[in-house]
Automatic annotation (TrEMBL):
Pfam families: Lipase_GDSL_2 (PF13472). GO terms for biological process: triglyceride catabolic process. Residues 35-251 form the SGNH hydrolase-type esterase domain. Disulfide bonds join C56-C81, C122-C130. GO terms for molecular function: triacylglycerol lipase activity. InterPro entries: SEST-like (IPR037460), SGNH_hydro (IPR013830), SGNH_hydro_sf (IPR036514). Residues 1-28 form the signal peptide. This is GDSL-like Lipase/Acylhydrolase family protein. Keywords: Disulfide bond, Hydrolase, Signal. The keyword Disulfide bond applies. The active site is at S39 (nucleophile), H245. It comes from Micromonospora mirobrigensis.
Length: 264
C-alpha cells in the first residue's frame, strides 16, 4: 500500500529540512578562470597544440588546461599566447576578464626582457658576448620591467576586481656540470640561470606589491633542467620555437603543482 502525502505536508517537511540544514545542498558553483600570459603559460614546448590557436600555440597539456581538468570550472578563457609581452597582455588579453572572474593566472616578463635573443646569443656566441647579453637583460629587468609589470597588474585588478590572481614565475633552465658535446658550456648556463633568478625576484616583488599570489617554480624544476638525466625543459630542438621551454612533464610535474599549492 502506498501512503499518500498531501502537498501541504510535503511543503512543511521540506521547509523543516531546510531549517535544520538537512536538505541536499545545491551544486557548488564552478570557477570562472582566465589564463593570461606568454609561451610558458600557453604550453609552447609540449609539441601538442590546439589547431585553432594559431601562432599562440596553446596546448591541451599546458598547466592551465591541466588545472581545469582537475577542478570544477564554469568558464575558462585561455588567452595566453606565444611571444606575448606585457604590451600584448594589455592590448589583447584583458578582454577575457570581467567582474565575475574568480581566478586569473599569468606568466609574463620574459619576452619583455628579450629572453629568446639572450639565449640565442649565449648558445651561439662567446662567453663575453653571453655575459654582456645577460647583464643587459638584467639591467632591463631591474630598471624597466617593474613599471611594466605594475601597469599590467593594475589593469588586471581593474578588469577583475574580485579575482584571485596567481603570477607564475620562470624556472632556471639548466643543470650545471657535464652536459655533453655541443651543449652550452657551464659558465654560460650559470649566467642564464642567474638571469632567471633576477627576473623571478622582480616578478615576485611586483606581484606581492599588487596583492597577488606568486608561485615560484624553480624548486620544482630542480634536477630536471636542460642537461639533467630526466629533463622537463627542452634544450635546442626543432621546431626551434620549442627550445628552452617546458616539456609536458614540466607542466604536469612542476607548473601544475605550483599553481595547485596556491589555489587548492
Amino acid at each position: 500500500m502506498r501512503i499518500r502525502v498531501s502537498p501541504t505536508v510535503g511543503a512543511l517537511v521540506a521547509g523543516l529540512l531546510l531549517t535544520l540544514g538537512l536538505a541536499t545542498p545545491a551544486a557548488a558553483a564552478g570557477t570562472d578562470y582566465a589564463a593570461l600570459g606568454d609561451s610558458y603559460s600557453s604550453g609552447v614546448g609540449t609539441n601538442n597544440y590546439d589547431g585553432t590557436s594559431g601562432s599562440c600555440l596553446r596546448s591541451p597539456q599546458a598547466y592551465p588546461r591541466l588545472w581545469v581538468n582537475s577542478h570544477t570550472v564554469s568558464t575558462f578563457q585561455f588567452v595566453a599566447c606565444s611571444g606575448a609581452t606585457t604590451r600584448e597582455v594589455l592590448g589583447n588579453q584583458l578582454g577575457a576578464l570581467n567582474s565575475g572572474t574568480d581566478l586569473v593566472t599569468i606568466s609574463i616578463g620574459g619576452n619583455d626582457a628579450g629572453f629568446a635573443d639572450v639565449v640565442t646569443t649565449c648558445r651561439l656566441g662567446t662567453d663575453s658576448g653571453c655575459l654582456s647579453a645577460v647583464n643587459n637583460a638584467k639591467s632591463y629587468i631591474t630598471g624597466t620591467l617593474p613599471g611594466r609589470l605594475d601597469e599590467t597588474y593594475r589593469a588586471i585588478r581593474s578588469r577583475a576586481p574580485y579575482a584571485r590572481v596567481v603570477v607564475l614565475g620562470y624556472p632556471r633552465l639548466f643543470e650545471l656540470g657535464y652536459c655533453g658535446f655541443g651543449s652550452i658550456n657551464e659558465y654560460k648556463r650559470g649566467l642564464l640561470n642567474g638571469g632567471s633568478d633576477t627576473i623571478s625576484s622582480v616578478i615576485s616583488a611586483r606581484a606581492a606589491a599588487a596583492g597577488f599570489s606568486y608561485a615560484d617554480v624553480r624548486g620544482r624544476f630542480a634536477g630536471h633542467g636542460v642537461c639533467a638525466a630526466t629533463p622537463w625543459i627542452n634544450g635546442t630542438t626543432f621546431p626551434v620555437v620549442e627550445s628552452y621551454h617546458p616539456k609536458a612533464a614540466g607542466h604536469s610535474s612542476a607548473y601544475l603543482p605550483a599553481l595547485t599549492a596556491v589555489t587548492g
